[in-house]
Amino acid sequence: VSGSWRDQPSDVEVEVTCTGAPHRLRWAGGRLEAPDHADLDAERALLALGGPTPRCLAALDATTALADDLRVLAIGPRGEADDPVLDAEVLAAARAKCRDEFDEAHRRFLAFYPDHRAEVVADDERLPAHLARLELCALPAVLQRRIAASIVATWVARLAAGAPGAAAAVPALQAAVVGRARAAVAAWTMAGTPRPEVVCPDLGHGTRWDAAARRLEVGTRWLLDVWAHDLAVVDGHLVLDVVWSDGSATLHLAASDVS
Amino acid sequence: VPDLRGELHLRLLAEEVVATVATDVDPTTAFVRLRLVADALRFVGAVDDRVTAELFDDLKVAMVLRSYRRARRLWSTPGGFVPAPHVGPWSDPETAPLRTASSEVRVLDVEVPFPWGRAWLSHVTWHGAGAVVRGALIPDAVVDDAKRSWWAPAMFEEMVLVADDGTRYPARSGGGGGDDAFVWVQWELPDPPPVDVGPLTIVWGGARRRTELRRPPALRSEPLDHLPGVTYLERAAWMAIEHPNRVWDDPDVDAAIVSAFVAVGALDPADPSIHILQSVRATNDGGRPTAAGDGGATEPAPIPHDWRRALAAPVPDAGRPGHHAIGVGLPLVDGFEVELAALRTLEDDARLEVVVRPGRSPSSLGSGEQLVRPGLSLLVVDDAGRRYAPLLRRTGVSPAELQCQLCFGRPLDPTARMLTFVVTWHDRRYTWQVPIGGPA
Fold first, then answer.
1. Interface predicted TM-score (ipTM)
2. What is the reported pTM?
3. Which of A10, A255, B80, B127 sits at a 20 to 30 Å CA gap from B119?
């Protein structure tokens, strides 16, 4: 594991097909980079003249646009055993279909309510974000996990700073933590055994495993310190916490009575 | 600080669905529970409509990503990664006060004989994009698909409405529905007569019928005090009385809804409606009513007297087949125009045709079986006091409308001469009375 530990999800590099060639996408220092695109500004200027957006640029744009989008958390991978990736061809088809469906629904609506054009405009504004979310879904799962963790880290910082409106993000964050911890527990426990209860009493909650009650309590710290670094389950063990010292990591594991 | 307990509850249930969809576990139970709990929480205003819609949009994408086959089976709307458009006012009575629907409905109630049977023209509706004449084709004998072709051309024949000043208004056949013995049809008038045109002559299929346009019964509105069946659990209990065999009416779903209500502070765990619902369920199952939370102790649950009477009321052996024009347009409900079109009575059921504009997917109306919007409910009461709680059964979506069929689930009492339709929408109740005693 490398990178700015504890502040950002760890660095990772993947390969995607972009403009017909293998290109690298790199998560480093808490942001996405496209090292095979030397002059992004020039490419964007050319794009303004028309033509399809290269995949690397689309990924960069989607990541920027959705840097604090909580809805990404409801869609994306919950863990290494749950890493759905959208096929690129399906993504292209979905883009066109979304546009067509919205246009048709809005045409119908305006036929009945011609004075409500503002509602149609407001509804239409949802579409770019939806398409950007689909764009993220087409990225390799390991990258999707970094992006999701970055979104969580953004909101944790906002909550800590008492940012206006940040409290409304709490349910989505709690559910994101529980969903990911549940996936880790599912990968940890043997099939057929009753699943332990997973709860997030509050976002700042420390990780606690109660073997007797078969209950795991987690907060965002587990997600950012453990899950975001692909360490939720290591060698068949559920990782509760990671402590770093002088470049080496100490993993705190759950008692393995259910595995 | 906003109350976010309802949203958290739903999101955690959604996580359960995501956790099961890609595994060997069938996600149907978790998915249906989520939908019903979402409806229930919206009904009591514990979750925001927009948040709920976004949650389901995201869940749909999450499910399609993980198992396209299962997602397609569970979502009534197709489209894969396409989110549902959200045009239309949202459910917020304070910021979006009830508006008058733009539709105007007039009753026709005219029959036109044909060699193969009759055509019944129920009513005409003027709406924002034209007008529609609705009715049904009623063949003398049930026709199978092979024979349908010989009478089908009449269905698509052009109809003309003629005003007394000679102005002609052509109508073209639109969609249909129903069954082979009673085919719902409609004729669209792109250039309709004015609402105050007065008497019309209908020219169609070689026949001419003069008709007065009659205004539908008056809609009365009053503040809501209390009506059994208005709270969610009471309504669920009434549904259980009227429709005892619904698939998803079971104690686990009830428990999930009660748990959600308690979690958001919308229900006292000792609320008597919990006992009522459990008792009705137990009675339907043939068991003795038991009190809640006591492990099946012997104390009977407090079912109100009139509810006991409803439980004990015998279902008529057979209803009287017929059809009745209703043609009542409701005030604008949550951005929808809802028109109660016509009632078809059968020996074993009664079916209410409902039109919703603008056309939405059936899932927009609720969990698929109930015409449930947050704060909206419909009951029908006959002149003997018997109640009917119609269920959404069949739907058809045209480019502009959603056509629904609400089934009573039992025959209408043949002695009934008057039906009172009761719609509650948040803190108001709308009622109107429709005579049904005339010849069918």
1. 0.93
2. 0.76
3. B127
